[in-house]
Specification:
The chain is α/β, with parallel strands linked by helices and 1346 residues long. The chain is 58% helix and 9% strand. It is elongated. InterPro entries: AAA+_ATPase (IPR003593), ABC1_TM_dom (IPR011527), ABC1_TM_sf (IPR036640), ABC_transporter-like_ATP-bd (IPR003439), ABC_transporter-like_CS (IPR017871), ABC_transporter_C-like (IPR050173), ABCC_6TM_D1 (IPR044746), ABCC_6TM_D2 (IPR044726).
Length: 1346
C-alpha cells in the first residue's frame, strides 16, 4: 500500500524521484502518536516538518509522514455497519451516533472554552475596578493581569484543540463517505448508471461529502454550544447593566433573522449558480472532449458562444449573491456597535451613569457574544445545506445494484478473501469451460418496466435520447435499443426495455465461437448477458469461473502500457513477451519512446485505434482465463495485423480455451468451431457447414468482399519470403521490446503528461497587480479599497475611544449623555456607510477580474495547439475552469476582504495601544520579532502543503472517471478490490495532506493566541504603571488587546489562504499564456489572403514533409513527398500506427510540419489562417464526435442549409428513416458523445456533415470501420456519387473500401513506400500493397478453393 502511495506521489509529480530516493519519512508513523501531552497541546510534534519546509526548501510529499491509524480511510470506513438507507436522514443520524459521539473530548474542550468566555469579562471587570482604587496593592494588580493572561490563553488554546479534534472527526467522516461512494459506483446496474452519470458521482464526492466534512468539523457541536453560550453571556450582561442588557439582546436578536435571511438568499443564489456552473463545465468538458473534431471543422465558436452565454447567466446570479453578501457583512460587523449604542442609551435612560467598568466589561461580553451570534447562523445554514446532501447520498447508496453483486456495500473488503469475496460474476452456474444460456430473458432496464412499458409510453414526455440509453464502454451498435424479437425505433419519449427473449446459446468448451450479424441486431447485448451486465429476468447462464473480456471501445487507464496489460496480475517476463508477440505489439513497442513503460495518456490518447484494441486484447490474453469473450477486437486493425492476431492470439495462445469472438470480419468465420448468427431476431447456431445447410450463404457474402482486382500476369504470385506472416516471425529479442524499470533515461522518455503546475515560493507582487488591473485601475484600488478598509476601522476604533472619553467625562463642561450618544451614533453610521462602500468597490474589482480571466482562459484553451491537449489530461484542464474559476468567483473576494479586514483591525488596534500607552512599544518590538519568525516558518510550509493538497485531488477524480468508464471491464476481470485499494490510497494521500496542513494551522494558531495573550498581559501590566491612564483608557487598551487575540491569528491564516487563492489565478494565467496554434498570436505573422472560392481544383502537394508530435520524439512522417491531382480518389493504407492518420492531421495543420511544405492549389497552407484552411475542407474522422444538442445543430450549427438539404443528406447516408421516427424529427436532442446512437450511426452523421459542406477536398479517416459490409457498400456508393468533383483521401483498413481508388498511398513506419494505381501495385507481387491484399484475401481464396 505504501509503495502504491509513492507511486501516486510520482503520478502527482510531487516527488522528484529522478533526483533522490523517497525518504523514510513517507513511511514513518504520524509523530503525534508518540508525542507528549505538552507537545500535543502546543503542536510541537509538527515542528520538524515546519522547519524542514522552511530551511530545506519547498516541502515534497516524501517529507510528510503517515496518518494516525484512526484517521486512515481503511479504519474510518469500518465504523459504517448496518446502516439503513431507507429511513429519513438515517445517514446523518448514524454519523452523529457512531462518529461524533465517540469524540467526547471535543465536547469537553468546547465546554471549557464556553466557561472561559464567561470568566474573561469578569476578570476584566475586576481589573477595571482595581484600576479605580486609589491605594492599590501592586501584587494584587499583577495577579489580576496574570489571571487575564491565563483566562485569554486558556480560552483561545482550548478553541485550537477543539478545532483540531473536530478536524480529525470530519476527516474520518470524509474518508468513509467518499470510499463508500466509490464502492457503490462499482456496484451500479444499468438503471442506476442512467441516473448517476460520472459528473453526478464526482459532485457527490466533491460537494455532498464536503458538506459533511464542513459540518462535522465544528458545527455539529457548535449548534448546541452556541445557544448555551449566548444565553449565559446575556445573563452576565444583565448582571452588569441590568434590564438594559435585554435591549441589547433584542437588537442583536433582530439582526439575527436579517443576517439569516441574507445568508439564506446567498445560499439560494449560490445553488442557482451551481446549476448554471454545471451546465458551463459540462459544455467545457464536451468542448475539450471533441476539441480535435471542432478544430478540424473550424467549429470552435459553436461551443465558445454557448459557454460564454452560460457564463454570463452565472455571473448575473453571482452578482446578486454578492449584493446580499455585502448586506450580510454590514449587518454582522455593525451589530456590535448598534447593540452597545442601544444598551448604553437605555442604561442611561434608566438613571445610571456609564462607567468604564460597565462599558468595557459589556464591550468584552459583546466581543465574545458577537462570535457566537455570527457563527450560529453559519452552523444552522450548514445543517440546512447538509440535509439535502444527506438525502442525495442516501438515495445514491440505496440505488439498485447489479443483479448478483460480488460484494456487499457495507462489508470491509480488506477482511475478505479476494477469490471468495470479489468474484467477477455471480449471475449463474459455474462450468468447467462451456458457456451456456438456457431459456434466457434479459432486460437492460433491470426488470423495471417490462410490464409497464405501455404505461410509460403513455405517460412519458418529450425527453432526450441519452436518458434511455446505457452508458457503458461495451455497448455499441445500438444493441441496447434492440430486442431480438422486435426492433423499436430510437424513440426518446420512452425508456427502452431492450429485452433479449427466449435465448438459448452455447459456446463449446475449448472451442472458438464466432458471433456475427448486422449492426444493431443485438450482438453486444448477448455478450453483456454472458458477463452479467444485463439483468436476467428468467433462465440460466453458465460460465467458467474466470473470464477475460475485451470491449469494442478499449478501456485503458492512465498508466504505463505494461501496467495496462498486466492489469493487477504478477509480472511474468516470459509470458509477457509471448503475449506481446501474439498481439503484434512488438513493432509498436520499438516505436514508442520508452517501449512498454511508455505512459498511456487519458483513454489512450497517444495511441492509434488499433494499438488500443491490441493492448486490450493483450490484457485478456495475459490473464490466462478459462474463457475469453472478445467484442469486435479486429475492427480497428489492418488485414495483415488482423490475420496475425487471429493466427497467433485467438487461434494461437488462446487455443484450447473457450473463445467467443464478435466480429464483422467474415473471412475468419470458416475457421470457427461454432458460429452464431443473429438474424431477424433469432439466434441461428451451428458449424460452418451446418449453417450452410440451413441456407445461410456465407460464401456469397464473402465474395462481395473479394477485391475485383487481380494481377494482369497470373503467373505473378507472392513467394513465401514476402508473406506477411513469415515476415512477422522474424525474431525480436525480449530486451529490445521490454524496458528496464531502473533505466532513468527510459523513465524520462516514458512520460507523456507534462508535470502539473505546482508553484513554489511566495506569490509574486506582480500577480496581485495583474489580477487587480483585470478588475480596474490599480491606483484606485489602493485608494478606494485599501484606504477605505483602514479609514473604516479607524472610525470603528475611534467609536470605542469615544466610549472611554464618555466614561471619564473628558469634555468639560460636561455636554451631557445625549451629546455623547449622538456622536457615537455618527461614528456608527459613518462606519456602516464606509463598510458598504468598501465592499461594493472590492466586489466590482473581483467580479470584473473573474469575468475577464474566464473569457481569456476560454479563448486561450480553445485555440491552443493540439499537443497542449495531448500533454494535459482533460481533468486537469477542466480543473482550471471548475475549481480554479470557482475559487476566484466565490472565495477570492471573501478571502481578500477578510485579509484586509483582519490586517487593518490588527494594525489599528496596535496603533491604539501604542497611542494610549507608548511604553507598550518595547514588548511589542520583541513580540513582533517572534511574530515575524513564526509567521515566515508557517507560511513556507502551509503554502506548499496547500498546493500539494490541491494537486492530490486530481488522482481521486481521475480514478472515479476512469473506473466509471471501464466498469464493465473491471467487473468482468473481478478487479474491484484492487481498484478500491488504489482509490483509498489516493484518497488517503489527499487526507494526509489535509491533516498535516490543519496541524500547522493549529501550530501557528496556538502560538499566535499565546502571543496575543502576552500582548494582553503586557498591556494590562503597563496600564498599572501608567500614571496618566484612566479607567476608560485602561479598559480601551485591554479591550483592544483582547480583540486582537482572534484577529492576529486569522490575519496570518487569511494571508496564507489568499496566497492559495491567488495560486488559482496564477494557474489560470499560465494557461492564458499558452501560445496560440498556427502562430496566429505572433505579431509578425501576416497571413495570405485566399479567395472565397479556394480551393478550386483540389490539387495537393507534399514536399519533403516531416511531422513530429513532440520535439524529442522520432518523426511520425519523414521526408514524405507526393502530388495528388484535382478530383483524384486516393486510398491510404498501412499497418496500424504506421502514420496514415498523420497524413490527414498534417493536411489540417493539427500538427505543424517541422520540415517541408504542404500546398493546396499552389498555396502553402502554413501561410494562411487556420480558419480559412479548415473551413474549406471536409472531414469524416476515425472517432466520430456528436455533441449535446439537436440533430440539426450537429449537422448545421451555423444554420447555413435548408431543411430540404439536410433531409437529402440524411437520406443519402441511410439515416432519414431513423430521424423521421423520432418525436421531434431533426430537433430531437442527443446527449454528449451521442449516447444512444451506435458507433455506426455516429459515423453516418459525420458523413452527412461532409455531404452538406460539399468541400473540394474530403478526408475520410476509417469512416466506415464500424459498419457492416452491406451498409459500407451503400456508403461507398454515396461517396462515389456525391464527391465526383472532389479530391477524396480515404484512410481504411478494409481494402474493398479503397480498392477502386485512382491511386494507393502505402505508409509504413512513417515512410511513403508506394504511391501508384492499385492495378500496378498488385501486379508487383513483392509490393507492400500486394502483401496487404494477400493478407485479407487468403482466407477467402482458401474458402473458395475448398
Amino acid at each position: 500500500m505504501q509503495s502504491f502511495g509513492l507511486g501516486v506521489a510520482k503520478y502527482l509529480r510531487l516527488v522528484d524521484t529522478e533526483d533522490q530516493d523517497p525518504a523514510d519519512t513517507f513511511r514513518q508513523p504520524c509523530p503525534e502518536q508518540n508525542a507528549s501531552i505538552y507537545s500535543k497541546i502546543t503542536f510541537q510534534w509538527i515542528q520538524k516538518l515546519l522547519f524542514k519546509g522552511y530551511f530545506n526548501g519547498p516541502l515534497q510529499l516524501e517529507d510528510v509522514s503517515d496518518l494516525p491509524e484512526v484517521v486512515k480511510v481503511s479504519n474510518s470506513f469500518k465504523n459504517i455497519r448496518n446502516l439503513d438507507f431507507n429511513s429519513k436522514y438515517s445517514l446523518l443520524k448514524y454519523i452523529y451516533i457512531h462518529y461524533a459521539l465517540k469524540h467526547r473530548f471535543v465536547i469537553f474542550i468546547k465546554l471549557i472554552s464556553l466557561l472561559f468566555s464567561i470568566v474573561t469579562p469578569l476578570v476584566l471587570k475586576l481589573f477595571l475596578y482595581y484600576v479605580t482604587i486609589p491605594d492599590r496593592n501592586i501584587f494584587v494588580g499583577w495577579g489580576i493581569c496574570f489571571a487575564l493572561f491565563i483566562s485569554a490563553m486558556i480560552l483561545n488554546v482550548s478553541l485550537q484543540q477543539a478545532y483540531w479534534h473536530g478536524m480529525k472527526l470530519c476527516l474520518q467522516v470524509r474518508g468513509a463517505l467518499i470510499s463508500l461512494i466509490f464502492k457503490k459506483m462499482l456496484l451500479l446496474n444499468n438503471t442506476s448508471r442512467r441516473k448517476y452519470k460520472v459528473g453526478t458521482i464526482i459532485n457527490l464526492i466533491s460537494v455532498d461529502s464536503d458538506s459533511f466534512q464542513n459540518y462535522f468539523w465544528n458545527n455539529y457541536i457548535d449548534i448546541v454550544i452556541f445557544p448555551i453560550q449566548i444565553f449565559l453571556l446575556i445573563v452576565l450582561l444583565c448582571v452588569i447593566v441590568g434590564p438594559a442588557g435585554l435591549i441589547g439582546f433584542v437588537v442583536m436578536g433582530l439582526s439575527l433573522p436579517l443576517s439569516t435571511y441574507a445568508s439564506r438568499t446567498m445560499s439560494k443564489y449560490l445553488r442557482a449558480s451551481y446549476v448554471v456552473n454545471d451546465e458551463r463545465v459540462h459544455l467545457i468538458s464536451e468542448l475539450i472532449g471533441g476539441i480535435r473534431f471542432l478544430k478540424q471543422c473550424a467549429w470552435e465558436t459553436v461551443f465558445t458562444e454557448k459557454i460564454e452565454e452560460a457564463r454570463a447567466r452565472q455571473l448575473e446570479i453571482l452578482f446578486k449573491r454578492i449584493l446580499y453578501w455585502i448586506l450580510n457583512q454590514v449587518i454582522v460587523q455593525s451589530t456590535g456597535a448598534l447593540v452597545l449604542l442601544a444598551t448604553f442609551s437605555v442604561y442611561i435612560l434608566l438613571g445610571h451613569q456609564l462607567t468604564a467598568s460597565v462599558a468595557f466589561t459589556s464591550l468584552t461580553i459583546f466581543l465574545n457574544l458577537r462570535k457566537s451570534m455570527e457563527m450560529l447562523p453559519v452552523a444552522v445554514q450548514r445543517l440546512l445545506g447538509l440535509l439535502p446532501s444527506s438525502i442525495r447520498l442516501q438515495e445514491f447508496f440505496g440505488s439498485s445494484e447489479v443483479q448478483h453483486p460480488p460484494f456487499s456495500l457495507l462489508d470491509d473488503h480488506n477482511d475478505q478473501d479476494n477469490d471468495g469475496f470479489f468474484t467477477s460474476r455471480r449471475h449463474g452456474e459455474t462450468t468447467s469451460g462451456e458457456v451456456r444460456i438456457t431459456s434466457g430473458v434479459f432486460d437492460w432496464n433491470d426488470g423495471v418496466g417490462i410490464e409497464e412499458d405501455e404505461e410509460q409510453q403513455d405517460n412519458s414526455s418529450p425527453s432526450i435520447i441519452n436518458d434511455n440509453q446505457i452508458e457503458m464502454e461495451n455497448i455499441d451498435d445500438g444493441s441496447q435499443m434492440i430486442m431480438l424479437d422486435s426492433a423499436p425505433t430510437l424513440a426518446e419519449s420512452q425508456v427502452q426495455t431492450a429485452v433479449l427473449q427466449n435465448v438459448n446459446f452455447t459456446a463449446p468448451n475449448g472451442k472458438l465461437t464466432v458471433i456475427c450479424g448486422q449492426v444493431g441486431c443485438g450482438k453486444t447485448s448477448l455478450i453483456s448477458a454472458l458477463i452479467g451486465e444485463i439483468y436476467r429476468v428468467n433462465g440460466t447462464v453458465s460460465t467458467p469461473k474466470s473470464i477475460s473480456f475485451t470491449s469494442q471501445q478499449a478501456f485503458l487507464v492512465s498508466a504505463t502500457l505494461r501496467e495496462n496489460i498486466l492489469f493487477g496480475k504478477p509480472y511474468d517476463k516470459e509470458r509477457y513477451a509471448k503475449v506481446i508477440y501474439a498481439c503484434s505489439l512488438n513493432t509498436d513497442l520499438l516505436q514508442l519512446p520508452a517501449k512498454d513503460l511508455t505512459e498511456i495518456g487519458e483513454r489512450g490518447i497517444n495511441l492509434s485505434g488499433g494499438q488500443k484494441q491490441r493492448i486490450s486484447l493483450a490484457r485478456a490474453l495475459y490473464s490466462d482465463a478459462e474463457c475469453f469473450i472478445l467484442d469486435e477486437p479486429l475492427s480497428a486493425v489492418d488485414p495483415e495485423v488482423g490475420k496475425h492476431l487471429f493466427d497467433h492470439c485467438i487461434q494461437g495462445m488462446m487455443q484450447g480455451k473457450t473463445r467467443i469472438l464478435v466480429t464483422h470480419q467474415l473471412q475468419f468465420i470458416p475457421s470457427a468451431d461454432h458460429i452464431v448468427v443473429i438474424q431477424d431476431g433469432n439466434l441461428i447456431q451451428g458449424t460452418y457447414s451446418e449453417l450452410q445447410q440451413l441456407g445461410i450463404d456465407f460464401e456469397s457474402i464473402m465474395k462481395t468482399k473479394k477485391l475485383n482486382i487481380e494481377p494482369e500476369d497470373k503467373s505473378l504470385t507472392m513467394d513465401d519470403s514476402a508473406s506477411p506472416d513469415k515476415s512477422q516471425k522474424k525474431e525480436i529479442s525480449i530486451e529490445s521490446i521490454i524496458s528496464d524499470e531502473t533505466n532513468p533515461s527510459l523513465i524520462e522518455k516514458s512520460k507523456l503528461l507534462v508535470k502539473e503546475d505546482r508553484n513554489k515560493g511566495s506569490v509574486k507582487i506582480s500577480l496581485y497587480k495583474d489580477y487587480i488591473q483585470s478588475g480596474g485601475p490599480f491606483w484606485f484600488f489602493c485608494i478606494g479599497v485599501i484606504g477605505l478598509f483602514l479609514v473604516s476601522q479607524v472610525i470603528m476604533q475611534a467609536s470605542e475611544y469615544w466610549i472611554s472619553m464618555w466614561t471619564s467625562r473628558s469634555i468639560q463642561p460636561d455636554p451631557g449623555d445625549r451629546y455623547y450618544v449622538t456622536i457615537y451614533l455618527i461614528f456608527v453610521t459613518g462606519f456602516m456607510l464606509l463598510l458598504s462602500l468598501r465592499y461594493f468597490i472590492l466586489s466590482r474589482y473581483t467580479f470584473n477580474a473573474s469575468s475577464k480571466l474566464h473569457n481569456t482562459l476560454l479563448d486561450s484553451v480553445t485555440y491552443a495547439p493540439c499537443h497542449f491537449f495531448d500533454t494535459n489530461p482533460s481533468g486537469r484542464i477542466i480543473n482550471r475552469f471548475s475549481k480554479d474559476v470557482a475559487d476566484i468567483d466565490n472565495n477570492l473576494m471573501e478571502t481578500f476582504s477578510d485579509f484586509l479586514y483582519f490586517s487593518s483591525s490588527v494594525l489599528v488596534a496596535l496603533v491604539t495601544m501604542i497611542f494610549l500607552n507608548p511604553f507598550i512599544i518595547l514588548p511589542f518590538i520583541l513580540l513582533s520579532m517572534v511574530y515575524v519568525v513564526v509567521q515566515r516558518i508557517y507560511v513556507a510550509s502551509s503554502r506548499e502543503l496547500k498546493r500539494m493538497e490541491s494537486i492530490s485531488r486530481s488522482p481521486v477524480f481521475n480514478t472515479v472517471s476512469e473506473c466509471y468508464n471501464g466498469l464493465t471491464t473491471i467487473r468482468a476481470f473481478g478487479e474491484q478490490k484492487r481498484f478500491i485499494n488504489d482509490f483509498q490510497t489516493s484518497l488517503s494521500i489527499n487526507i494526509r495532506l489535509i491533516y498535516y496542513s490543519y496541524a500547522i494551522h493549529r501550530w501557528i494558531g496556538t502560538r499566535m493566541e499565546m502571543l496575543a495573550s502576552a500582548i494582553v498581559f503586557f498591556s494590562s501590566i503597563l496600564t498599572l504603571y501608567n500614571s496618566s491612564s484612566t479607567a476608560g483608557t485602561s479598559g480601551l487598551a485591554v479591550t483592544a488587546a483582547l480583540g486582537m487575540t482572534g484577529f492576529l491569528n486569522r490575519s496570518i491564516r487569511n494571508f496564507t489562504e489568499l496566497e492559495l487563492r491567488m495560486n488559482s489565478v496564477e494557474r489560470i494565467k499560465k494557461y492564458i499564456e499558452t501560445p496560440r496554434e498556427g502562430a496566429e498570436d505572433d505579431p509578425n505573422f501576416e497571413p495570405l489572403f485566399v479567395d472565397p472560392s479556394w480551393p478550386k481544383t483540389g490539387c495537393i502537394e507534399y514536399k519533403n514533409v516531416e511531422i513530429r508530435y513532440r520535439p524529442h520524439l522520432d518523426p511520425s512522417l519523414a521526408d514524405i513527398s507526393f502530388t495528388i491531382n484535382g478530383n483524384e480518389k486516393i486510398g491510404i493504407v498501412g499497418r496500424t500506427g504506421a502514420g496514415k492518420s498523420t497524413i490527414g492531421v498534417s493536411l489540417l495543420r493539427m500538427v505543424e510540419a517541422t520540415k517541408g511544405s504542404i500546398s493546396i492549389d499552389g498555396v502553402d497552407i502554413s501561410k494562411i489562417r487556420l480558419y480559412d484552411l479548415r473551413s474549406r475542407l471536409g472531414i469524416i474522422p476515425q472517432d466520430p464526435f456528436i455533441f449535446s444538442g439537436s440533430i440539426r445543430m450537429n449537422l448545421d450549427p451555423y444554420e447555413e442549409y435548408t431543411d430540404q438539404e439536410i433531409w437529402e443528406a440524411l437520406e443519402k447516408v441511410q439515416l432519414k428513416t431513423m430521424v423521421q421516427g423520432l418525436p421531434l424529427k431533426m430537433d430531437s436532442l442527443v446527449s454528449e458523445n451521442g449516447e444512444g446512437l451506435s458507433v455506426g450511426q455516429k459515423q453516418l452523421l459525420c458523413l452527412s456533415r461532409a455531404l452538406l459542406r460539399n468541400s473540394k477536398i474530403v478526408l475520410m479517416d476509417e469512416a466506415t470501420a464500424s459498419l457492416d459490409y452491406q451498409t459500407d457498400y451503400i456508403i461507398k456508393q454515396t461517396v462515389k456519387n456525391n464527391f465526383q468533383n472532389s479530391t477524396v483521401l480515404t484512410i481504411a483498413h478494409r481494402l474493398d473500401t479503397i480498392i477502386d481508388s485512382d491511386k494507393i498511398l502505402v505508409i509504413d513506419k512513417g515512410q511513403m513506400v508506394e504511391f501508384d494505381s492499385p492495378q500496378n501495385l498488385v501486379n508487383n507481387p513483392n509490393s507492400r500493397f500486394a502483401q496487404i491484399v494477400n493478407a485479407q484475401t487468403s482466407f477467402l481464396y482458401n474458402t473458395s478453393s475448398s
